[in-house]
């Protein structure tokens, strides 16, 4: 483990991570590969199941027909884990287990490989981890009956899924800590402690377990953020952190009302957030600003917009967004959270339909609001600036594009670091703009 952090007991929170040295804003605190990870079912056809990069065309596993890879190299590197997964997938086709079940199974497969390597003397195990699978909280005792029933179904699905490999995995399962041998307990640990893996544009493409980083506690105004490079997780400081300070991240989208944030944290992570931002409710009035009837109109329409987006029904999605924004009127506050979400969805729809001028118009409307809600360097704000900058560049608004890219760079050099591929792409875009302006 990197010397910048160590494990400690955080008052009122249980375990946590704290700084063992002064950490500067923008500094890389820690990087980690997952103990296990899997591509989300939603993106199974578009993302390499080994390196997690996107491609229009991917090689498909000839046996399970689900796993896809960039090339033969990725396929070979993935095979040690996929050979067990492949048998299990074939045994349950045409059904595909949920992401959490597939991740739990991959954890078992990874442990089997670790055990084999350890016996052969080619691995030291994962003794460097500050947090073990056994120590991960399951919160089973605090679950309501409905959630226990849902978890029980996932556990049954895991047992059925692993049945094809059960004889080969018996030794692995029996050597697991007692709380991990029980499928329901294992599923509870996975669902409560796994991280969502996102791509460069913060699209959720998979899930993974990063044991030591599960020690990080939540704050709605955190001092660190997590970004991914493939499956590798980078923890970076977005504020100056002093020796002994606790490191925190936000478990959820912080752009939500206090009651909604607290409800999500209680349901998913089983605690009530009492951070400074929740106690002060500092942004609630602004997020809910505007006439109540219009607020309800926009908020009630959001599930419908999500459904159309999931169906990739971009024409109908854009029409509905325009209708909602027209009903709200130009005088309705841009800072209203539901209006911002509708405007953002309209931006996505325009990009998908190739309506570049309209996309830029919607994108520009979102930037002042993003700046308001993400005053600290935040990946979401930086990436939104980069999206708008690309539209400006494409439409030959070169001076505006360069200015927008510069604003994005000031954020991404902190949240991603200069060496991250996304930051490198951004620097290349800025150089293109400068060359075009000089010409």
From TrEMBL:
Biological processes, Gene Ontology terms: methylation
Gene Ontology CC terms: nucleus
Catalytic activity: L-lysyl(4)-[histone H3] + 3 S-adenosyl-L-methionine = N(6),N(6),N(6)-trimethyl-L-lysyl(4)-[histone H3] + 3 S-adenosyl-L-homocysteine + 3 H(+)
Residues in SET domain copies: 3-252
Recorded GO MF terms: histone H3K4 trimethyltransferase activity; zinc ion binding
Main enzyme class: transferase
InterPro entries xrefs: H3K4_H4K5_MeTrfase, SET_dom, SET_dom_sf, TPR-like_helical_dom_sf, Znf_MYND
EC numbers, comma separated: 2.1.1.354
The keyword S-adenosyl-L-methionine belongs to this UniProt entry's keyword annotation: yes
Protein name, per record: [histone H3]-lysine(4) N-trimethyltransferase
